[in-house]
Write a structure and sequence with these properties.
single chain, 184 residues, alpha/beta, Rossmann fold, 3-stranded mixed beta sheet, 12 strands, 31% helix, EC 3.2.-.-, Class_I_gatase-like, Glutamine amidotransferase, transferase activity, transferase
C-alpha cells in the first residue's frame, strides 16, 4: 500500500530560479507513495526551474497561490532550493507566514539547499540543529540554529518536524525523510 495515500504536500516556490531536481525529485517521491503534491507560489501561472542555478530547466504550472492556501489544507510543506528561488521566497511575507503556520500546527516542513533561508525569515530555527548548502551556515548560526554538515537532518521544533539537506546529491536521503515524516 502507498504510504501517503490521502496526504497532500505543498511545494512552496517563487516564480523563478527553482533548482529543478529539488522540486521534481521530492514531488515524484510524494506521488510514488500515493500522496498529492501541490505547487504553491505567490503568483498564478507557471514557475521556471533551473539546473545548477544557471542552466534553464522546465516550467511548471502553479496549482494554488499563497493567498489561496493555509497550513490546514496540507499535511506537510517542502521548500526546494535554487539561490534565486530561495532569496525571493524569504522576502515574501506570505511565504514566511505559511512556514510559521505549518510549524505552529506541528506539521512537517522540509527545506533543501538554500531553502532554509525561508525558515530563518520565518523565525523557526532558533535552537534547532539543521543543515543546508554550506554558504548558509553562518546565516543559520546567526539565527540561533546549530549548523551541521550532514546529508539530512531531522529535527523537532514546536511539535513540528524540520527536515533539511545540503544539495541535490542528498535527494535520496531527503526524499526518504520527507516520506517518513508525512507518513507519520
Amino acid at each position: 500500500m502507498a504510504r501517503l495515500t490521502g496526504r497532500t504536500v505543498a511545494f512552496l516556490t517563487s516564480d523563478k530560479g527553482i533548482e529543478e531536481p529539488e522540486l521534481t525529485t521530492p514531488w515524484q517521491a510524494v506521488a510514488d507513495e500515493g500522496g498529492t503534491p501541490v505547487l504553491v507560489s505567490a503568483q498564478p501561472g507557471t514557475v521556471s526551474a533551473v539546473n545548477n542555478d544557471l542552466d534553464p530547466g522546465g516550467d511548471y504550472p502553479v496549482d494554488r497561490t499563497l493567498d489561496q492556501v493555509s497550513a490546514d489544507d496540507f499535511d506537510a510543506l517542502v521548500i526546494p532550493g535554487g539561490t534565486v528561488n530561495a532569496d525571493t521566497l524569504r522576502t515574501q511575507e506570505g511565504a514566511q507566514a505559511l512556514v510559521k503556520a505549518f510549524v505552529g500546527a506541528g506539521k512537517p516542513v522540509a527545506a533543501i539547499c538554500h531553502g532554509p533561508w525561508t525558515l530563518i525569515e520565518a523565525g523557526v530555527v532558533d535552537g534547532v540543529t539543521l543543515t543546508s548548502y554550506p554558504s548558509l551556515a553562518t546565516d543559520l548560526r546567526n539565527a540561533g540554529a546549530a549548523w551541521v554538515d550532514r546529508e539530512v537532518v531531522v529535527a523537532q521544533t514546536g511539535g513540528s518536524t524540520l527536515i533539511t539537506s545540503r544539495d541535490p546529491d542528498d535527494l535520496p536521503a531527503f526524499c526518504a525523510a520527507v516520506v517518513d515524516a508525512v507518513a507519520g
